[in-house]
């Protein structure tokens, strides 16, 4: 079996070599010639898998190591008997931790605010569950859910009046509930003064040109964008106006990517009727030197949000993601580099980020209520 895979997928050989020969290629620039002789294609979200890519191939299985599937032509797969699989939930925790890291960096305590979530599937649903456990007032918009599934569902207009809004809807262009340009000029103008708008779902869910127009009219909005319209040729003008910007890496924790690799490996094994012989527990050893502490004065102050800030910064310095993207923009403006290529380069060479659950927290004097609050974030309090 010949397997062609995105070069950014970790442990691809360790998992897939027992199944056949693996060829790594840049995901965004894969061509029909690259996969002509492939039996299986393993990608991430940057590869558009459609007739143009597959028509001349013998590919019988497509796997994407991502939650999203808008880059896959499922109708073509069905018409040509091509099996496919995604990795729902693989990087859910990574994206939720990105949201918490962004709020901590911006010094926004989410406990006393009204928090809006647009899209409550895998990612939005987990964020909702954790915020709910921390006692946050929530408003959610997801027309695919019922009040029985989420008692805090309301209208989009109500969510747009929240203090913080986090977007986690997939990109849907047809059907009864399309999400393409869900937030356009009219919706963006409804945002309350000082609102925080976070998008780490899909870039085109927000009309980026309309967003530029709105922030030109008012400078009170606080924007965090991990996804853009379009990628990788994003608007550098828009990047200048956001408080935090990153190159579509919210779900790029090492743990999340590993989960995706394992899930697609298992799906291909099922497709070819072969029992899986590898697992993450075998291939990835536990972290060492993973004990975290914070200054005693912060603990004594009794503000659990400040403790969370100190812990999260040790684990994930989100400001570094922002700095790398802005440095790239500066180099592109000086003519030193092609921005689109650099954008993909930042993703390809993204530092290894481990999720909160890999770390133990030792904070003598912290009461059980605050320990439980930190456990909701994912930390292991000892």
UniProtKB/TrEMBL annotation:
Residues 29-279 form the D-isomer specific 2-hydroxyacid dehydrogenase catalytic domain. Keywords: Cytoplasm, NAD, Oxidoreductase, Pyridoxine biosynthesis. Its EC number is 1.1.1.290. InterPro entries: D-isomer_2_OHA_DH_cat_dom, D-isomer_DH_CS, D-isomer_DH_NAD-bd, Erythronate-4-P_DHase, Erythronate-4-P_DHase_dimer, NAD(P)-bd_dom_sf, PdxB_dimer_sf. Substrate binds at residues 45, 66, 252. The active site is at residues 202, 231, 248. Homodimer. This is Erythronate-4-phosphate dehydrogenase. The lineage of its organism: Bacteria, Pseudomonadati, Pseudomonadota, Gammaproteobacteria, Cellvibrionales.
